[in-house]
Design brief:
heterotrimer, A mainly alpha (105), B mainly alpha (497), C mainly alpha (627), A: mainly alpha, Helix Hairpins, 4 helices, elongated, B: 497 residues, mainly alpha, two-stranded antiparallel ribbon, 2 strands, 72% helix, 1% strand
Chain lengths: 105, 497, 627
């Protein structure tokens, strides 16, 4: 049993790291958003696994709540993507740099 | 009155947010009447909150419903008052700024109330998940508020940057919660601390990792090094009243939660962070100072200086387990000091720029005192307070923090903070010098002192001076001693059973 | 009844705020009729006086001490310092004549300042001054007293420099302020040292009285000396007297109110207030008495050669203050306060008379350009005569009784040197005062054709009232040998010197001697200056006329070295070393700013990368710490 929870934990951490790296390395805003969702789901996985392992229901409830919050975040993210695309006709994260110090000076 | 009375402030704000959202759908109400309704709800919440102000108590309202996830104590009442004043101040300051021709609509006020609701919930939450939800409610509404003027690419970009980085930090918070959950099988503040006691003999390294992740989220939200990069962009990109709102209130709410968490559960873990936080503080101070020096734009300068102020606050934060109550009350006091000064400075600049021509760089303020002497005086007061000159509330706040740090033995931190203060005089006084020592004003359509916002900003200026005089020179008037006493009381209320 | 104490102070304070606002309003919008500030300005000291009378009556009949502590002003550790008012016999006596003389001078000033454009401002300062002075007197602890102490300092600065268009006056104001700061510095040091011993009991006089016995005598002497340094500054004693003569630059009512009747007596009052402290350190008291005697003598000598009417009076003030310090230094607080009391009447009167003369002669101040005013200004002449006689100590005028008591105390306590200096000074005082009097009023007037400005009634009434005061004030302290009851001594019983036995015959002899010396002075003045020949130019030179070159000496000793030091610092240290360092540091900092702004490239992914680095560093650190 203890082996299995370690495996779940490792999987969750792996997913989380992949998500983090995705935010850093991918240029497309959509993919960045997907990476963040991936991270959230990694945490969900962890909660569910822990909940099952400890025979507690609280972890599962937490996972449900996280999914709800993630949905709200998705709404904002998607609408923002639309707005961003309207402005620059592109989804490349790197071109949105009007606020850099160079431009401000 | 039963448990409901402890939840009334939250209820008023939450219900107000929903009502405003429904009202703004009708489109028949003008934006100023919606602002009035929002103000009404906030004032109601404030009154119901002030009812318990300064009274030592700790209540878990409706425990059979919330299972102790929400708490109401002296501490939360204190912080809720600050937050509510912040929200009220934002509406009053932005009275002329939020106009339909700027694409502000009624929903904006609904979002403002939602965000305030989230922050208040954050202050009141006694559990990590509810804290996360509260944090997300506050942040999500704030993202939208920042990007509300969708025709302006700067706004949208700021919103985007904050959204991505904020979500990242939110995930880190959750991950930290998960690690703590794995280690202690609970997410309730108070219970976590019991599980982490050294007597239990458990290996708590997992929980330390989790707590560190939560600390990172906290550092991100208060913009400490190395999680500070978003600050200047987001503040610069947001509408000015929103910057004021963010700078003054969000920090307060996040600090409130972190203080509660540290005081209740992490007393033992905190020692591991000592060296880490020292490095963070020095780098935060250095980074903020250098960045502020390089700025030419007032808004960006204020944003960078807010990073420096975070550094000051963190100094009190590290000394908290050595000098306890006085450190936490000095944090609270400094938060009020910064809240007032930043709110005043941002508010005044937003008022000045509320006509269409933006006056935002240093150069624009050349000879400003000849056109608008009173505004210059108020702006000078805020700058003096931010720089921490005696006679203003900023000085007293800094004084408490520095003396506390020296008392707790963090002389290095105190020295670097004093050095940062010393340099900060350059960028604050530059504005004063430009306003007063240049003869020819760059004339443009600065709005005259008229209407609600200047009166309110004037009140803030008086409060800044009042806090700085620091005693009851006039009889029977509550002084800052009173605020500090209540701050100490609220710190004590954290440990009530 | 206790709250009245607060209202005594609040009445002029609120009025001054009101006047200030009215004046500002008048400047901003349209000018208001002068009644707007004259009427409240005249009412407020009267209100204070009436309230003080009530309190006085209460204290006299009930024989108790009134204390009123409305609220905690400062809370330091476990000491609560109250905004406290203390009405006992000493303070209420001071309040009585301060408010009364102040009221008279307000009335006088309302005529004197009639045509001045800054009248509103003047009365704003004047009432503020009165409030500060009353606070100083009524304070129940040194800290509250210090508020009033500094308040009168500020007001005196503002009022000396009132005619600020003449740069000389501004310099005089600065001088007064700076010299007073030197004294205040001492006062603060004394107060702080005292506070160290009071951290358990509180910081009002009653609490200090309890602990003062536990303080080691050396420290106590230090405290006493330091407090006296403050008194030196405020009461213009050697060596901090230099500001007082220059302070005559202000309008004459200011000189009358501040530099004669009230503010300068603050030092004497302070020493009397701390009598319980000074009683334990008699050596310091003797030192104080010698400083007082020297100041008295020194000032009297300088006064004999001055030509400016106000400066003569200023030096005479300093000389009389010296007498008071002799008294309080030797432990005769009651006699010191008695002299403060009588002095307030006749000195205010003298200044008012001088002001009247100057008004009549269109602001002429040189006494040798006046002359023969007896016929022109009969009332002023009479009143000035009364005041002069009072100052010279000719019986039965007020000064005689109080001065005599001081001389008696000096003699009785065995300090014969002090006594002889004081007696000699009495002669000198008589000489210079009658010199002034004869020259101004009796000398042949060669400018009889000159137009004399008519004096208004409002100016004459207070002069007359104070003349009566100067005539009568002494009778409350008629000594026992002359068949009086010496009310003042029995009233201020706590402050009288104990164990004072002198044979009645000796007492009579001393009295006779001092009167004789004074008469000799008068006669000398008569011989030399009665019917003074105005055709002869008065030669004003010599070491005495130049005030013993003390100002120049100070200039050489203190001001010049400081100036050269600061110019050295400015030219060498500042520019070549400090500036260079700072500018270098600035360049470094700005470079740092440039580097830092490279990190602010507004790239979301880059920011996330930094965050990730931060998280990694945090965890590497944790791994290192946890092992």
């Amino acid at each position: 049993m203890s082996n299995s929870i370690t495996a779940y934990m490792f999987l969750a951490m792996l997913l989380l790291s992949i998500g983090f790296l995705g935010v850093i390395s991918r240029k497309n805003i959509f993919v960045i958003y997907m990476s963040i969702e991936l991270m959230l789901n990694a945490v969900n996985l962890m909660f569910v696994a822990l909940s099952r392992y400890n025979d507690l229901m609280s972890g599962q409830i937490i996972a449900m709540c996280i999914i709800a919050v993630a949905t709200a975040e998705a709404g904002i993210f998607l609408s923002l993507i639309v707005v961003l695309y309207r402005r620059k006709k592109s989804l490349d994260s790197d071109i949105f740099n009007t606020l850099s110090q160079k431009e401000a000076l | 009155m039963g448990d409901i009375s402890y939840l009334l402030p939250l209820l008023f704000v939450g219900v107000g947010a929903v009502v405003l959202m429904l009202l703004s759908y009708t489109k028949s109400l003008s934006i100023s009447s919606i602002a009035k309704i929002a103000l009404g709800f906030l004032v109601l919440a404030f009154i119901s909150n002030v009812y318990y102000f300064g009274e030592l108590h700790k209540v878990y309202p409706y425990e059979n419903v919330f299972f102790g996830m929400i708490v109401s104590d002296t501490y939360s009442v204190y912080f809720n008052s600050i937050l509510l004043v912040g929200a009220i101040a934002t509406i009053l300051i932005g009275w002329d700024y939020f106009r339909p021709d700027r694409r502000f609509t009624g929903e904006f006020f609904s979002l403002l109330l939602f965000s305030t609701f989230g922050m208040m919930l954050l202050v009141q939450s006694a559990e990590l998940l509810s804290a996360f939800i509260a944090l997300e409610i506050a942040s999500l509404s704030l993202y939208v508020m920042i990007g509300f003027q969708t025709d302006n690419i700067r706004r949208v970009e700021a919103s985007y940057r904050y959204l991505v980085l904020g979500s990242l930090s939110g995930v880190l918070f959750l991950f930290g919660t998960a690690l703590i959950y794995a280690s202690t099988k609970t997410t309730f503040l108070g219970n976590i601390g019991v599980e982490l006691l050294p007597q239990t003999g458990k290996d708590i390294s997992l929980a330390i990792g989790g707590a560190t992740l939560i600390l990172i989220t906290f550092l991100f939200k208060i913009s400490a090094f190395p999680f500070q990069n978003w600050t200047i962009d987001v503040y610069d990109g947001s509408p000015l009243p929103v910057s004021a709102y963010m700078a003054s209130t969000f920090k307060v709410a996040v600090f409130a939660f972190m203080l509660r968490f540290v005081a209740m559960d992490l007393g033992y873990i905190k020692d591991y962070w000592d060296g880490l936080l020292m490095g963070v503080i020095i780098l935060t101070l250095a980074y903020g100072t250098f960045l502020a020096l390089a700025q030419n734009n007032l808004k960006r300068m204020l944003a960078s200086s807010s990073i420096v102020h975070t550094g000051y606050l963190l100094i009190a934060f590290v000394s908290i387990d050595i000098i306890g109550e006085s450190a936490s009350s000095s944090i609270i006091y400094y938060l009020i000091a910064y809240f007032l000064s930043a709110m005043g400075a941002f508010g005044l600049i937003s008022y000045i720029s509320s006509s269409d021509k933006l006056r935002l760089t240093y150069e624009d303020f050349k000879g400003f005192s000849h056109v608008r002497p009173y505004m210059s005086a108020m702006l000078s007061i805020f700058m003096l307070s931010l720089a921490g000159l005696p006679g203003t509330i900023g000085f007293i706040g800094k004084f408490y923090i520095f003396s506390g740090a020296i008392e707790a033995g963090y002389t290095v931190l105190a020295t670097s903070a004093i050095l940062a203060t010393f340099i900060s005089i350059y960028y604050y006084f530059k504005l004063i010098a430009l306003m007063y020592f240049y003869p020819s004003p760059i004339l443009s359509n600065v709005p005259p002192l008229k209407g609600l916002p200047p009166i309110f900003i004037g009140f803030i200026a008086i409060a800044v001076l009042w806090g700085g005089i620091g005693n009851t020179f006039i009889a029977f008037f509550p002084s800052i001693d009173f605020l500090i006493d209540v701050a100490k009381l609220s710190h004590r209320s954290l440990f009530l059973q | 009844m206790n709250t009245l104490l607060m209202w005594i102070v609040l009445s002029p304070l609120l009025t001054s705020i009101f006047i200030g606002m009215v004046y500002m309003w008048g400047l901003k919008y349209h000018k208001l009729a002068r009644q707007w500030y004259i009427v409240p300005a005249l009412i407020s000291p009267f209100v204070s006086f009436v309230l003080a009378c009530f309190v006085f009556w209460e204290i006299l009949t009930q024989n108790n001490i009134l204390v009123y502590k409305p609220y905690v002003w400062l809370s330091i550790e476990n000491v609560d310092i109250y905004m406290g008012f203390l009405g006992d016999k000493l303070s209420i006596l001071m309040v009585l004549f301060v408010s009364f003389v102040g009221w008279m001078i307000h009335i006088y000033a309302s005529a004197y300042m009639q045509d001045d454009e800054g009248e509103g401002k003047f009365f704003f300062y004047f009432n503020l001054f009165l409030a500060s002075m009353l606070l100083l007197v009524l304070a129940d602890g040194p800290l509250i007293m210090f508020i009033g102490w500094e308040g009168v300092g500020v007001c005196s600065y503002l009022l000396i420099g009132f005619y600020f268009r003449v740069s000389q006056n501004v310099v005089a104001g600065n001088k007064a302020f700076i010299v007073n700061r030197v004294g205040d510095f001492g006062f603060v040091i004394g107060m702080v040292t005292l506070f160290f011993y009071c951290t358990d009991v509180g910081f009002d006089y009653a609490s200090i009285k309890q602990v003062v016995g536990n303080i080691p005598s050396f420290t106590l002497a230090f405290i006493g000396l330091m407090l006296f340094v403050g008194a030196m500054g405020k009461s213009a004693q050697i060596p901090l007297y230099v500001w007082l003569p220059d302070a005559m630059a202000g309008p004459t009512p200011v000189s009358a109110l501040i530099h004669a009747a009230t503010m300068v007596t603050a030092g004497v009052y302070m020493v009397a207030r701390f009598n319980f402290l000074y009683e334990l350190i008699p050596q310091v008291g003797v030192f104080i008495a010698y400083v007082g005697a020297l100041s008295a003598f020194f000032a009297a000598i300088i006064a004999t050669k001055q030509t400016d009417i106000k400066k003569i009076l200023a030096y005479s003030t300093m000389s009389q203050l010296g007498y008071m310090f002799i008294a309080v230094g030797l432990g005769g607080y009651a006699s010191g306060v008695f002299h403060v009391f009588t002095h307030a009447f006749f000195k205010a009167l003298l200044f008012m008379g001088a002001g009247a003369v100057m008004t009549a002669l269109h602001h002429e101040q040189d006494i040798f350009k006046m002359g023969g005013l007896r016929q022109k200004l009969p009332l002023v002449h009479g009143c000035m005569l009364v005041a002069t006689l009072a100052l010279c100590g000719i019986p039965p005028f007020a000064g005689f009784f109080s001065k005599d008591q001081i001389l008696l105390e000096a003699f009785a306590s065995g300090h014969y040197l002090l006594w002889s200096i004081a007696t000699l000074t009495a002669g000198l005082s008589a000489y210079y005062m009658f010199r002034l009097f004869f020259v101004v009023f009796e000398g042949k007037n060669y400018n009889s054709s000159r137009h004399i400005h008519r004096l208004s009634k409002t100016m004459q009434v207070p002069i007359f009232v104070l003349a009566i005061g100067s005539l009568m004030a002494g009778f409350i302290g008629v000594p026992l040998v002359l068949g009086g009851d010496n009310h003042i001594a029995s009233y201020l019983f706590e402050w009288t010197k104990k164990s004072l036995h002198v044979e009645h015959s000796i007492e009579f002899a001393l009295m006779g001697l001092s009167v004789t010396v004074a008469l000799v002075g008068v006669v000398l003045a008569y011989v030399k200056f009665y019917r003074y020949d105005f055709k002869k130019e008065y030669v004003s030179k010599g070491i005495v006329y130049n005030k013993f070159y003390v100002d120049e000496f100070y200039h050489l000793l203190i001001v010049l070295p400081l100036q050269s030091l600061s110019s050295f610092i400015a030219s060498r240290l500042d520019i070549q070393i400090i500036d260079a360092l700072i500018m270098g540091a600035c360049r470094g900092v700005i470079k740092g700013g440039r580097f830092v702004s490279l990190l602010q490239n507004a790239n979301t992914r880059f920011y996330s990368l930094l965050m990730m680095c931060g998280v990694s560093v945090f965890f590497i650190y944790l791994i290192l710490v946890l092992g």
